[in-house]
Amino acid sequence: MQMKNNTAQATKVITAHVPLPMADKVDQMAARLERSRGWVIKQALSAWLAQEEECNRLTLEALDDVTSGQVIDHQAVQAWADSLSTDHPLPVPR
């Protein structure tokens, strides 16, 4: 592990093979932002990890709702959705 920028945060080098067009886009983005290729990849990876963590959190939350019986019948949701294009939309099902 390497220490960078005089911080206590340890880093680890990770290697990935990516398609050439993707690598070219990373290089173009790095040039446009005047940042390093590594910085661009780190930003993208951080955003992807945050997105996946949020997806997992929401999935677990939804499973808890199902377990506790807090669900809405599909037919009620479909009727509500169908009513949205009418003059008298139904209230949101609860």
TrEMBL record:
<dbReference type="InterPro" id="IPR013321">
    <property type="entry name" value="Arc_rbn_hlx_hlx"/>
</dbReference>
<dbReference type="Pfam" id="PF01402">
    <property type="entry name" value="RHH_1"/>
</dbReference>
<dbReference type="GO" id="GO:0006355">
    <property type="term" value="P:regulation of DNA-templated transcription"/>
</dbReference>
<dbReference type="GO" id="GO:0043565">
    <property type="term" value="F:sequence-specific DNA binding"/>
</dbReference>
<dbReference type="InterPro" id="IPR010985">
    <property type="entry name" value="Ribbon_hlx_hlx"/>
</dbReference>
<dbReference type="InterPro" id="IPR052991">
    <property type="entry name" value="Non-func_TypeII_TA_Antitoxin"/>
</dbReference>
<protein>
    <submittedName>
        <fullName>Ribbon-helix-helix protein, CopG family</fullName>
    </submittedName>
</protein>
<dbReference type="InterPro" id="IPR002145">
    <property type="entry name" value="CopG"/>
</dbReference>
<feature type="domain" description="Ribbon-helix-helix protein CopG">
    <location>
        <begin position="12"/>
        <end position="52"/>
    </location>
</feature>
